[in-house]
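Backbone shape codes
____________________
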Amino acid sequence: MRIALAAGLAGALLLAPARAADGPSLAVGDRAPSLSIAEWVKGSAVPDYEAGHVYLVEFWATW
């Protein structure tokens, strides 16, 4: 049992850096990637962003 658990943990740790490299990398100050929303629960899409304004996107998930 301990060997299987240790092997699984080692495998997960070895794959973690590879998975992180697959996605896009963003740094502070980079432009946010564009969002594609199929249905707005509340509010509506913002057609153009204005300089000096703060925009908040709230994400929800049910697990």
